Amino acid sequence: MKVFSYRAFSLVWFLVFMVALVVVAQVDSTSCTSTFFSALVQLIPCRAAVAPFSPIPPSESCCNALRALGQPCLCVLVNGPPISGVDRNMASQLPEKCTTNFEPCVII
After folding, report:
1. In Gene Ontology terms, what is a biological process of this protein (predicted)?
2. Domain span at 94
3. Count: domains in the chain
């Protein structure tokens, strides 16, 4: 009986987590036409600037990639699943550091 209840609990927890991800993506991506993965790939030039505890400022290629990506897609990344090697707070500061006119992302 314990195995069944553990499996049922795990399945319910997984489903709740997946629904939460979909809701976050729908709320934040009203204007984002990129998938989570393609948005992440587009911001590869920003990798050094968003690494945890990185003192490196965003490069010009990073800022250009950020402008091309747009604020809604940045917010999808900031509020999406955890990304190894990326500090969400530093990623949310990119628009300010790149002097773009993005509204701040609401971190969920």
Report:
1. systemic acquired resistance
2. 36-98
3. 1
